[in-house]
Amino acid sequence: MRSRRASGWGTVHLSASDLVGHLNCRYLTSLDLAVAKGVLAKPFIWDPVLEVLAERGALHEKGYVDHLTASGLSVTAIGGVGVDSSVVAQTLDAMKAGAQIIVQGALQVAHWTGRPDILRRVEKPSHLGSWSYEVVDAKLARETKGSTVLQICLYSELVAAVQKRVPEFAYVVKPGLNFQPEEFRIADYAAYYRRVKGSLERAVTSEADIESYPDPNSHCDVCRWRLHCEEKRRRDDHLCLVAGISKSQMGELKRHGITTTTNLAAMPLPLPWKPDRGAIQSYGKIREQARIQTEGRLKGRVVHEALPVVAGFGLAYLPQPSPGDVFLDLEGDPFVGEGGLEFVFGYAFKDESGSQSYTADWAHSRAGEKAAFERFADFVIGRLEEFPDLHVYHYAPYEPAALKRLMGRYATRENEIDRMLRAGLFVDLYAVVRHGIRASVESYSIKKLEPLYGFARSVPLTDANKALVKVQACLELDKPNHRPRL
């Protein structure tokens, strides 16, 4: 969203990113509109993860363009950044000339602008001549989301305004499919597109403030306003700060006048009303969670309390310790190649002398991943011969799921992994914690619980995260010597 004096539609011009932002969060629309009107300053946020994501996206698009070139199609690339009269004129000239492929074309119709990845010529007559254009967008996501459909619908509408013919189809090119586009019939999504687009236009042109609140959602991960919104939620003591609370529970509580963590902590038990959705016991759990979080705030430290003992849950779920026990932690990156890569197999155990030992088995390729997986499976099976009562401990269910996935990917160590699963070797410590204690944390991730088990870091967590981003960037971009700016 940007402001321009020359616009005949107020001073605001809209783009595909504004449409996607509005779909995900109306509060985002209100903030961007305030920037366009000069009321707020546009925040600057630099995120190395997003930088790598943008670089991967550019490489994916380039790979597709190279594929088109190799198939014998001629490519016309439109340079520049943003949308101005110069790049719009270049795009129109290329369309009128009947270019086969137009890369990063710039289009502007009234108050809407866009730069589709690819405009591909099709032999269907239009105002341009015996040809017209359809939109192709290159996306990294394995599954096409509603936001992508909105983008290609907008681009198709902009194309239609130029060529006086609505493209019948638009396409999305995803990784790992040999650049075979996924086809979308524009008419099938037209009503959905008009509804979201109309909502955004009304929000921008209306004199009334947009009624919204920055409730957290998946779009926050890529939003430049995320720190602003997080600070607002903390100032407001928002219910989303309560660990484990659901969106439906927040809605139910708000209908009963409970709008903050402090309100929830003071809610009487047993519950004085019957919830419309969800079990009444679940509201008791989140109330107690809010209570201990409020207590932790007042004391200025992480506090905890034991939950009632229930057979088969919490600490009662733990098996007897064995000198052969193994503690496993995998580090993976889902954006490496097709299907991701488990690049560190880390496991701690007691060696022959009884001393603590740790193995960090790194994998930088598919071959390395397979070898590391096989070494771990062989290690556990071999250790079982000496310690038949051992268990493999992990935190959250990722590790067993990843091992099963690797077993299927490489068709190796099937019997070994099956034996581990059938014997119940895997013990999820996250489940033990969640059923064993209640703590004054907003998340029960193992990092948030560090104050409770006395873990002292030799390297600050921020530095460790920076190192992780560097490793992931090298793997994702297939550049061993890549050094992203951190």
Notes on the protein architecture:
- With 486 residues, this protein is α/β, with parallel strands linked by helices.
- It folds into three domains: 2-205, Lambda Exonuclease, Chain A (Alpha-Beta Complex), CATH 3.90.320; 224-302; 314-433, no CATH class.
- It has 16 helices and 17 strands.
- The strands form five sheets. Strands 3-4-7-8-9-10 form a six-stranded mixed beta sheet. The protein has a five-stranded mixed beta sheet with strand order 14-13-12-15-16. Strands 1-2 form a two-stranded antiparallel ribbon.
- Helix 1 crosses helix 2, helix 1 (16-24) packs across helix 6 and helix 3 (48-70) runs parallel beside helix 16 (461-476).
- It is globular and about 80 Å long.
- The model is unreliable at 4-9 (pLDDT under 50).
